Amino acid sequence: MENANEEEIRQWVAKQTAYLDPPAGWQADSVAALTRFHARMDADRPAAAWRSWPAWALAAMLIVAIILLLPAGRGIAQQLWQFLTVRQMAFIHVNAWPEGVPSPQVNLIGTPIPPILARDLDEARRRVRYDPRLPHAGVLSGSPRLYTMFGLSGGTVVKAADLELALRKAAVTDQTVPPQWDGAQLALHTSAIVIAQWPDIALAQSLPLTLTAPPGFDFSAFSALILRVLGVGSEEAARLAQRMGTAPPWLVPIGRDLDKAAAIEEIKLNSGPATLLQQTGNDGAIKRILIVWSVPDRVYALDGQVSRELAIATANAVQ
Amino acid sequence: MTGKIESAGNFDRLFIVNYAALTRIVYRVVGDIGLAEELAAEAFWKLHRKPPASDHNLVGWLYRTGLRLALDHLKKRKRREHYEAFVPAAGEQQSPEDALEKIEQQIRVTQILAALKPAQAELLVLRSEGYTLAEIASILSVRPNSVGTLLARADTAFRKEYVNRYGER
Predict the structure, then answer these.
(1) What is the reported pLDDT for B103?
(2) Rounded CA gap, B20 and B6, in Å?
């Protein structure tokens, strides 16, 4: 073979590689393998749901964070609580909470129970007692896994002394904290939640959020005060506070420095305005995208590792 | 990906149409039916979990992924595991001497494949499985008119490595 020509070498190599021939008559069973593959997918999906859990937790924390900026007193006085239904949503850019001042702690109330798999839309509907909405056909391929969750609640307790200190640190001199606010418990509640999970995208939905607070609590003044601490000018704070009085919005404060870590923008969906948060990697590729929006009878959070176009198209297709 | 192939129907069809063929290719590298099935399924899993950005030539992507998984496995395998992998299938009629000789030869060939550049090993494996030049070009995403040249180079590299290790045979 020293001077073997190309064809001789090819034949020799072919003879060697023929040792690797599979056993005669052997053929892998594709159907059985696909069954095993589906079993693996099924086993992985609860994990996928758990992976989406932090995403939903993020959305939930966005929800509960707004307790700091809650809508004004249009509430119906109840024996123990006043209730507000928050039907709109607005994102505002704010400064960070003043350094050295304990920021109001917003915590989930209770231990969230993990999502529970639902066999189909009917079962999800029976559990949550409203009609879950999904994107219409043609946007996402395949059927989603459906999960339901009990409602989430988050709350905070107002600490008057901390607020006073925060006002001073923020150099706000024309505001004071009414002493009766101290110890007031504010809480925001979702309804039961439906999560539709595709491999790379998840849509969570709830009925409009409900706010509870002690009777007579002045949300308008509270919201204006918090906005001032966060750097919103007095006129803008008063305007927002007034708006809260007539049409309570769900206000989500977004730190100005968050823009550095994620692109945040207002977008227009078919159903109205929405906020899109987009995280990109060093290579410019999208790592994660989150769209939060509401319609009069639903709040939605869509979270995924998909293109911006697909995320927006999916949000627009929800019906 | 939530693209075309993630549709359950499309994905299942892709699986059914390509799984057995991919398993045969992987078998040629690892020489073990169970492992070949496992690695072929792993290639589909990668497609399911983290598919390529483009839907173009998914089958090629799948085969290349399966081959790379197999070659990576081969490089990590210890010598004892080579023998275990190539143990004759039940019912194969051959003398102990012939069986041992065959195993030795299988191990030599796979070790040469592991020593080659992965792209060259892939070319040789696909050709040994009977794929045409056009099919090989498509699977490996190379220009069809260059496959012949690439194969000739792979043959030469294989031959050279073999002779270096085991002498003329």
Answers:
(1) 81
(2) 20
